[in-house]
Amino acid sequence: MIEIKQVSKVYRLKNREVIAVDDVSLTIEDGDIYGIIGYSGAGKSTLVRLINQLEIQDSGKIFVDNQNLGDLSSNELRKLRTKIGMIFQHFNLLWSRTVSENIELALEIAGNKDKQERHSKVQELVDLVGLTGRENAYPSELSGGQKQRVGIARALANDPKILLCDEATSALDPDTTKSILDLLLEINKKLNITIIMITHQMEVVQKICNHIAVMSEGKVIETGTVKEIFTAPKHSVTKSFVQEAKSHNDFNEEILKQIYSQGELLKVIFDEKISRQPVLTKVIRESDADINVIEANLNNTIDSSFGIMILQVIGDYQRVKTLFEKYLAKVEVM
């Protein structure tokens, strides 16, 4: 388990101070896939570098498996870092080394002197990330997705318990992004490795993560499960991310109110079980109001599905709201 307790990091520049991380507290359970999302400059990359102590916090404490990282000696910290893998946006491969040699480098740096053991481990990782047959290729001969697969294999070389992914899919096209996320999901399930995803792409979080922390100006402004964040975002920044993820759903609440000025607008949220039942039909039958469906969609996350409908209700909207709630749907008056 990773515990981040009231951690802050300040960069002191020539004429000013930049608060990169501001009093952040998070708990990340073993085996979780945890997304940290924010726009550029939010502090998310600094936060992830505090976890492996590539950056040292100015205040606060970070615990990994109940070990306070601030209490570790240099040698103990070096040993701990071998159990925290990291993959990067731009791959960070050595262009003069082959696929196998790039992966093997991580074992060499960790002090593994058994050449046969290193080669065996490299082949195992090559097979795991789907690069069988490309062992002797150089980075210049690989696609972006293949380069990131090498980066993932290298990060897994020393059997880490934690994998930090800093904008790992930002440089990839949508199809390649999907394949890399599928690979990370497979690795999480197969190895029970804790994955922390740093990203500015809500669709990445939606695809792979169980929990999310939203950062803005160095602070964590909202946390929750993916379903909680998507169905009921609270902060304006979070709402903006959720809206961007629904590329097919670009409605603006104020514009909708202008267009559908008669009656009230209701936002109805269904979970996976309720979405399979004819709830809307039942509500229409049991109410005297006129109900117009303005918008409806289904969202899928790693562990559930949920639906959202925007309805125009002309008549007793409170009665309609009560009926939806009777059938366990969540309702908001817009």
From TrEMBL:
Cellular component (GO) terms are: plasma membrane
Please list the residue ranges annotated as the ABC transporter domain: 2-242
Matches recorded under SMART domains? AAA, NIL
Q: Which GO terms describe its molecular function?
A: ATP binding; ATP hydrolysis activity
InterPro entries referenced in this protein's UniProt entry, alphabetically: AAA+_ATPase, ABC_transporter-like_ATP-bd, ABC_transporter-like_CS, ACT-like_dom_sf, MetN_ABC, MetN_ABC_transporter-like, NIL_domain, P-loop_NTPase
Per UniProt, the keywords (alphabetical) are: Amino-acid transport, ATP-binding, Cell membrane, Membrane, Nucleotide-binding, Translocase, Transport
Q: Which GO terms describe its biological process?
A: amino acid transport
The UniProt similarity line reads:
Belongs to the ABC transporter superfamily.
Protein name in the entry: D-methionine transport system ATP-binding protein
Q: Which organism is it from?
A: Thomasclavelia cocleata
User: What taxonomic ancestry is recorded?
Assistant: Bacteria, Bacillati, Bacillota, Erysipelotrichia, Erysipelotrichales
